Task: inverse folding
């Protein structure tokens, strides 16, 4: 039994095109309509063929939808919803894939006061963007977190849960504020650290840029991969999840100062205790299937 028959995806980049490809693979009879504000993305989406139709306006894309999934940067969610508000069928469910949930829920609620809105966040992605970057298995074995408001109809939440499960994801239901706090530490802060470290290395006088690239050992190289993530998407994430990110950043700065002291005063046991604790966290991530155990620092390019 299919949870939806007519899906609209707005924003046809990495995540939007991956949702379309996954639906094509897992629910081939679902009719997929796509829209993107960028005419060149629309053209490329038509050429790649992962939608049945690609429309020039957001309004035209939602007219007969029973599920609309917004896959645009989080700062654009409210404006996109306002664009199609007048054309949205009354019984359609509106969802999204944004990386932070409280601000998106507020923006969608303001633009679509009478709609059924069930925000969602598939915790899956890569550092690439655009319609060519998407692939059908992106969500397989990954978490998708739904953050329904308290008054959300249970049947609508259940249909969205089934939708994501059919795309291969494991679904969790969470309060939006809690989601934003958890993701601030597991995703947003690591990105901020990567952006900082790569920027710092780039700014260093006395170390040429070619040396930074030539001697990029595993640690730095992995930071550059994270720091290559989409600039617009991440600008919006930090501005939209400001409170949680600032709270986590404060804790991080305190912990960094403690490490600084341990190094200055030769407290090797403190350093070793922390590194042993963090190694166990890596082990748990591998054990829970969230990453594989292939030695990564030694990989060849
Ligand atoms: P992306 O590859 O850059 O795709 C976003 C697409 O939305 C682009 O084609 C963009 O067009 C288009 N767009 C921007 N504003 C629009 C508007 N007002 N109306 C219609 N289309 C618009 O980004 P993405 O990585 O797929 O991210 C999309 C969403 O997924 C974001 O909310 C992000 O937080 C969330 N997310 C991302 C990841 C990840 O790892 N990347 C993981 C989970 C969730 P132009 O760029 O050409 O203007």
Result:
């Amino acid at each position: 039994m299919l949870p939806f028959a007519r899906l609209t995806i707005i924003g046809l980049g990495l995540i939007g095109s991956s949702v379309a490809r996954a639906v094509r693979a897992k629910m081939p009879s679902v009719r997929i309509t796509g829209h993107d504000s960028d005419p060149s993305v629309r053209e490329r989406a038509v050429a790649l063929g992962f939608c049945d139709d690609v429309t020039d306006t957001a309004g035209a894309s939602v007219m007969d939808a029973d599920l609309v999934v917004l896959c645009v940067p989080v700062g654009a969610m409210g404006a996109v919803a306002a664009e199609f508000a007048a054309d949205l069928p009354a019984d359609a469910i509106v969802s999204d894939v944004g990386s932070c949930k409280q601000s998106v829920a507020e923006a969608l609620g303001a633009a679509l006061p009478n709609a059924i809105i069930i925000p969602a966040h598939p915790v899956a992605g890569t550092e690439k963007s655009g319609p060519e970057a998407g692939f059908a298995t992106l969500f397989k074995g990954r978490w998708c977190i739904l953050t329904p408001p308290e008054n959300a109809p249970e049947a609508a939440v259940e249909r969205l849960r089934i939708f994501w499960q059919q795309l291969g994801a494991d679904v969790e239901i969470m309060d939006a504020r809690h989601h934003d706090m958890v993701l601030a530490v597991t995703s947003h802060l690591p990105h901020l650290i990567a952006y900082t470290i790569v920027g710092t290395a780039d700014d260093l006088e006395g170390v040429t840029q070619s040396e930074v690239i030539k001697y990029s050992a595993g640690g730095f190289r992995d930071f550059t991969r994270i720091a290559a993530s989409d600039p617009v998407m991440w600008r919006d994430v930090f501005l939209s999840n400001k409170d949680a990110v600032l709270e986590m950043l404060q804790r991080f700065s305190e912990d960094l100062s403690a490490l600084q002291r341990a190094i200055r005063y030769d407290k090797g046991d403190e350093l070793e205790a922390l590194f042993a604790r963090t190694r166990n966290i890596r082990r748990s991530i591998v054990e829970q299937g969230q990453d594989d155990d292939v030695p990564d620092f030694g990989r060849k390019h």
